[in-house]
């Protein structure tokens, strides 16, 4: 009985510590996002892309996509500034655990199984800008699809930083019905290669 009590106390203590660390991460990310309208722009774009893809007439679809060009440019510019701001975060606070579940002090105890969120945000900034420029000459539909994937993968990374990879993937399924593996398959090859090199195998 004493052993079970000690075990329960240990689990409770670990849960509380992990919860506190996650709240600090959420606050840190929110603090850096606050000056920007990234979330609003992202919502406007994803809804606009869905509306455009629902248009049967190609000319009308292109008109809807054209109306989104200014929002795309604003989002890309603001995300680059956000990523630059986040680079000032101390390295010890920017580490993200590769472990599937959140554990207290995971980035300190298992530093080899972690990566730098600052580098990941830079990677996403490049991916969004690449999709904006349409360097691969994609059709309007494919370009919108790729940009959506880049944005959703960036959102997954933010959830991963705040909680864990497992929670981030579950949220992506709940909100967008999109598995993490599908996101990786849908972003540009450059983003996918750099992402896997930084975060490890999917």
Structure, described:
- It is a single chain.
- Helices cover 76% and strands 3% of the residues.
- The protein is mainly α.
- It has one domain.
- A two-stranded antiparallel sheet has the order 1-2.
- The longest helix is centred in the N-terminal third of the chain and has 32 residues, at 2-33.
- It is elongated.
- The N and C termini lie far apart (41 Å).
- The model has no long low-confidence stretch (mean pLDDT 88).
| Helix count from the secondary structure assignment | 11
Q: Give the % helix.
A: over 70%
Strand tally is: 2
Largest beta sheet, briefly? 2 strands, antiparallel
Mean pLDDT: 88
Structural class: mainly alpha
Q: C-alpha Rg, in Å? A: 19 Å
Helix-strand topology string? HHHHHEHEHHHHH
Fraction of residues in β-strands: under 5%
Strand order of the largest sheet: 1-2
Total count of domains: 1
Distance between the termini: 41 Å
| Shape, principal axes of CA atoms | elongated
What are the segments in which pLDDT stays under 50 over at least 5 consecutive residues? none
